[in-house]
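Hi V.,

Quick status before I head out on leave. The structure for the redesign project is tokenized and pasted below; the design run finished overnight.
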């Protein structure tokens, strides 16, 4: 009879293997609001953070906090039920209408998280016998949404339009869905959305764009990747998150009115969960005003990106091409990447190490994220420290 390992011992062995491979993850406890200068429970001195997705510096904005405070006094703290029972409030309705108008879409649906949006939308649109065509480095939520749909899952090399075209042409699936990040979260580059939309229209496919990292940052008034390219089509389904540049929480899906009505009736992660607190919707309405009026913030952010890229001169490490706030610095080896992250931490700079399976094996990196809340001097400090640390490596 085969000997069975105790389940707890098996987990402990697995954690040991993660330690050996330099892949074990641990959380750090933040004791101040989200801002570049922050404090952590495991450090006596404050740190300068280059890891938050708070691209416009809105996560601790007083105007948004005040809107949430007023919302809590008006609506309380909970929705009480799912949106389709009794948990859809006037604040939610106003937010969805505002999001639709802001993105130039017919209608929008507010989800509690971006992950829930993606795992709800994809199975609602396609199923067994259909096909999903996905960029190979899409976010995990898009991968999981594709797997939950039970459609054929066809991946194409990163941003390779020709490879996607050949896969679409070879498919005999009755319904096709192309899915892509707008801005890729670990590489910082932007999907070729104009070409992807042309393929979607030519092959009668949907194009779902996850713009978690473009909404609020790209396009006129921060309207996102589709506005950045000037795209509009009934084939487009747009997902944006509201906990990054918008500084609050949640996500939305926007598109043609019948599409949104279908998702309201079929997206399980929308139907079978309690609605987000309406006080958050009040905060998001204020956040949208600040995003729309935030050209100065975006101009400063873009200047910081240019300053960082122009200032960094490296011999061994590779700074990937990116015009977005996500600036990936590939080091390669898991242990070296961890060591560099710890060295930065010792000098008061918080830049986490990103390792497989989040990124491909051999491409461990520092995911440096810039924010409109950073100053020129803070970016210069990061550049100088990185160059000194690389020079000290053998």
């Amino acid at each position: 009879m085969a000997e069975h390992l105790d389940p707890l011992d098996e987990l402990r062995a697995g954690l040991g293997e993660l330690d050996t491979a330099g892949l074990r993850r641990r959380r750090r406890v933040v004791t101040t609001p989200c801002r570049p200068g922050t404090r952590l429970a495991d450090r006596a001195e404050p740190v300068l953070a280059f890891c938050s997705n708070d691209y416009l510096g809105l996560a601790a904005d007083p105007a948004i906090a005040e809107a949430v405070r007023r919302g809590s006094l008006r609506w309380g703290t909970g929705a009480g039920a799912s949106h389709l029972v009794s948990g859809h409030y006037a604040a939610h309705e106003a937010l969805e209408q505002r999001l639709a108008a802001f993105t130039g879409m017919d209608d929008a649906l507010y989800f509690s998280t971006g992950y829930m949006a993606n795992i709800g939308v994809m199975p609602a649109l396609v199923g067994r016998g259909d096909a999903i065509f996905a960029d190979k480095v899409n976010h995990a939520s898009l991968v999981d949404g594709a797997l939950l749909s039970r459609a054929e899952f066809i991946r194409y090399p990163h941003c390779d339009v020709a490879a996607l075209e050949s896969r679409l042409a070879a498919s005999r699936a009755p319904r096709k869905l192309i899915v892509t990040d707008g801005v890729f979260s670990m590489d910082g580059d932007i999907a070729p959305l104009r070409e992807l939309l042309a393929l979607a229209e030519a092959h009668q496919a949907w194009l779902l764009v996850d713009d978690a990292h473009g909404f609020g940052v790209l396009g006129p008034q921060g309207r996102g990747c589709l506005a950045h390219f000037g795209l509009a089509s009934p084939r487009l389904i747009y997902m944006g998150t509201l906990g990054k540049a918008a500084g609050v929480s949640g996500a939305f899906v926007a598109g043609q009115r019948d599409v949104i009505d279908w998702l309201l009736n079929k997206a399980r992660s929308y139907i079978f969960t309690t609605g987000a607190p309406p006080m958050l919707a009040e905060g998001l309405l204020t956040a949208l005003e600040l995003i729309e009026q935030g050209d100065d913030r975006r101009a400063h952010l873009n200047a910081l990106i240019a300053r960082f890229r122009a200032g960094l001169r490296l011999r061994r490490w590779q700074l990937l091409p990116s015009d977005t706030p996500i600036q990936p610095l590939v080091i390669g080896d898991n242990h070296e990447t961890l060591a560099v992250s710890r060295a930065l931490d010792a000098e008061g700079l918080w830049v986490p190490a990103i390792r497989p399976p989040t990124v491909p094996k051999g491409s461990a990196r520092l995911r440096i994220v810039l924010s409109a809340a950073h100053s020129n001097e803070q970016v210069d400090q990061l550049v100088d420290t990185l160059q000194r640390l690389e020079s000290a490596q053998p």
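Above is the designed sequence. The first strand starts at residue 37 and ends at 38.

G. will cover questions while I'm gone.

Best,
W.
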